[in-house]
Amino acid sequence: MQRTTSYARLTRPLVIERRFCTSTSKNNNDKIVASVVFERLPVVIPKIDPSVYAFQEFSLRWRQQFRREYPEAFLKKSDTRGKGDYQIEFEPAPRITEADKSNNKRSLQRALDRRLYLLLYGPTFASPSGKSVWHFPERVFASEQTLRECAESALKSVIGDLSHTYFVGNAPMGHMVVQPAEAHQVINSFKRFFFKSQVIATNKFNIGKCDDFVWVTKDELLEHFPEQAEYLNKMIIS
């Protein structure tokens, strides 16, 4: 029997061009937005919860009942350690900064024992009539190869340089389908994907392309988004 299958059919390319479900047309249908949850990790150790402190005190007293008693001469030897010209007096920095006292939310030098998140104030995608609103750094997905690249470009357009940032993973930390307000049906619903990025080795950024910005704690962040507070509370772990 003569085989009629052509060589071209047997050698179909194994690499298929990657396509995205996002439309790059000017229509607002099926739009995808990449948002960045840009956080600063705690600088100092958080205060111990009173219940945890009480348990630690109880555990210490319980262990002291069964500890071995050492001779007095042996214990006095430890008092002579560290006494010399090389000894340095250490005084810890205050936990409450000037930014805390003045409630300066534009400074990273506040709430040192908490995580801080960057919020921008200005017009953004889907804001009604170009009105300024509080939002995360974001960008509409268009010609980027991946959603992470879109998120990186969104953050770079705000802070100018990504050398002091670290994106946690390539996948988004969460997503939501945003429905427009009833009074503004010109823009259809769209999907917003959140990517986590962290501040690395700096305490100041030159933030631009917005009317205002703040560094807020998680509780303060939820106050800016009352409608999405339940979802954001589950997505952001702090």
Automatic annotation (TrEMBL):
<protein>
    <recommendedName>
        <fullName>Large ribosomal subunit protein mL46</fullName>
    </recommendedName>
</protein>
<dbReference type="InterPro" id="IPR033650">
    <property type="entry name" value="Ribosomal_mL46_NUDIX"/>
</dbReference>
<comment type="similarity">
    <text>Belongs to the mitochondrion-specific ribosomal protein mL46 family.</text>
</comment>
<keyword id="KW-0687">Ribonucleoprotein</keyword>
<dbReference type="GO" id="GO:0005743">
    <property type="term" value="C:mitochondrial inner membrane"/>
</dbReference>
<keyword id="KW-0689">Ribosomal protein</keyword>
<dbReference type="GO" id="GO:1990904">
    <property type="term" value="C:ribonucleoprotein complex"/>
</dbReference>
<keyword id="KW-0809">Transit peptide</keyword>
<dbReference type="InterPro" id="IPR040008">
    <property type="entry name" value="Ribosomal_mL46"/>
</dbReference>
<keyword id="KW-0496">Mitochondrion</keyword>
<dbReference type="GO" id="GO:0005840">
    <property type="term" value="C:ribosome"/>
</dbReference>
